[in-house]
Amino acid sequence: MAGLDDIRERMADYLNGNGVPAITAWPERPRAAARGAVAAVSLRSCEGESGGFRDYLGERWNETSGRWEELYGKHVTVTFGLDLWAGTGEQGGEEQIRRAFDRLAGALQSGGPDGLRIERLACGETDYDRTAGRWRCPVEAVCSAYLYAAAEEGGAFLDFWVKGAVEH
Q1: How far apart are alpha carbons 75 and 165 in whole angstroms?
Q2: What value does the CA radius of gyration of the chain take, rounded to a whole number of Å?
Q3: Sign, CA torsion 108/111/114/119
Q4: Which helix (H) or strand (E) holds 56?
Q5: Pairing relation of β-strands 117-123 and 139-151?
Q6: Which residues of 19-47 are buried (b: 16+ CB within 10 A; e: fewer)?
Q7: What 3-state DSSP class applies to 14?
Q8: CA-CA distance, 9 to 28, in Å (whole number)?
Q9: How far is 114 from 21, CA to CA, in rounded Å?
Q10: CA–CA separation, 148 vs 56, rounded Å?
Q11: How many of the other CB atoms lie within 10 Å of CB of 2?
């Protein structure tokens, strides 16, 4: 998995690939109007804690450059908003939401996007949003991962990546 810059898109791609229609809440590109229930993927929070002494994780040999790189990182807890939206009127949307949550829970029970471990899934109450003219159910998924970066000899960071959390 890459860094946090595309983490919403990766979650949406994972859900779509596992039978749950999903879109990013704030897309980079235009999107078609969704039919039926859809999960709107957003990044609600990302909290980090030290992964090592002053975030130093050690060194690795870079085959491409033929040099040692220092690794720095943090354990992160990422909270996704996976709010479910359905229906275009006051009829039938609540049932669509229930079915969509069952599919969503099933998809996340079998794993998650590469590099993320699902810790918790929470579902709120379904209600009708009169302004949007659709049913809405707030859903959150809390995930664990490691955010790490490699540094060149001079100390410049090369890039950041999200890596799967290790069992404690």
Answers
A1: 8
A2: 19
A3: positive
A4: strand 56-62
A5: antiparallel
A6: ebbbbbbeeeeeeeeeeebbbbbbbeebe
A7: helix
A8: 9
A9: 19
A10: 10
A11: 14
Amino acid at residue number 44 = R
Which residues are paired to 105 by β-bridges? none
The residues, ordered by sequence, that sit 6+ positions from 22 with a Cβ below 8 Å of its Cβ are 11, 12, 15, 16, 38, 39, 40, 41, 82
Tokens of 123: 């579902």
- Which helix (H) or strand (E) segment holds residue 159: the answer is strand 157-164
- Tokens standing for residue 13: 């791609």
pLDDT at 150: 74
Read off the pLDDT of residues 108-162 as tens digits, 9 standing for 90 and up.
998 889 888 999 999 999 999 888 888 999 999 999 987 777 776 655 555 555 6
Structure tokens given for 103: 């599919």
pLDDT tens-place string over residues 30-41: 445 556 899 999
DSSP state of 4: G
Residue 129 contacts residue 90 (beta carbons within 8 Å): no
